[in-house]
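I would like you to sit down with the record closing this message with an eye to the fold:
=====
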Amino acid sequence: MKVKIDVECTPEEARAFLGLPDVAPLQQEMMAGLQGKMAKAAKAMNPEEMMKTVFPAGAEGLADMQKAFWSALGDADQSGKTK
């Protein structure tokens, strides 16, 4: 026997029903802070400082993240499962 239930609700209603926190104010605050840092770096017109704002670990951190990404992809077998 199959039972199918369709529930129509907004993401906000779903979060409230499941008891999950509303992170929208935190996200807005973080984005405002990032926007301020990017604007400050843009005024200096220093591309290196702008990249440090987005990627605090610098180019090395970005390269490490890329290596980890490719390593994770390399560990996947043909079926899409990791070893």
